[in-house]
Specification:
Helix 2 runs parallel beside helix 4 and helix 4 packs parallel to helix 5. By secondary structure, the protein is of the alpha/beta class. The chain is globular. It has one domain: Rossmann fold. The protein contains six helices and five strands, in the order E-H-E-H-E-H-H-E-H-E-H. Strand 1, helix 1 and strand 2 form a beta-alpha-beta unit. It has a five-stranded parallel β-sheet with strand order 2-1-3-4-5, with helices on both faces. This is Arylesterase. It comes from Wenzhouxiangella limi. InterPro entries: Ester_Hydrolysis_Enzymes, SGNH_hydro, SGNH_hydro_sf.
Length: about 200
Amino acid sequence: MLGAGPSALAEDADRVLIIGDSLSDAYQMPRESGWAHLLARRLGARYEVVNASISGETSAGGLSRLEQLLNNHDPDRLLIILGGNDGLRALNPSQLQANLDAMIRQAKQYGVDVALMQIRLPANLGPAYLRRFEAVYPTLADRHDVVLLPFFLESLFDRPGMMMDDGIHPTESAQPLMLEQVWPALQGWLDVDSPSGAGLN
């Protein structure tokens, strides 16, 4: 199921579509434990969160799925959290930029408000590659005047119990903290003053 929102939604609820990879797909844990589901609970009935994230997804895969997702779900907002798998495969950052650029343009053509999350990569990929890769996100945010969210694992990598043994995927314990990491920016983008609904546990 893609829907991560409450079972009873207000008819005028704004629909937020999340398209991402395993970091948003509740990898190796119950879907209800993932940060996207926690976001839906926090937002309450004013928003419907549709989590269309797939483990292993790349920017090319996201682009290939986007039109159908837009048609099927008719979202008001799109949150793009892609690029990690591109980077781990050392794909050319220029191709990443082209794919994300096309996604943003397509969503805007549908009248959808877009936000993009900054993605960070392990340092072992080398400083030159990291500079090119990580620069893609602010470049696109400036070009298209879209909100750039901070990476939700930014302060968690070195904290005990936050990462799985692979050093890439966050644990179930990390999920609430991932939401807290991006909540201030999400509040501004979604125009919510304070948490509503059940909140986080």
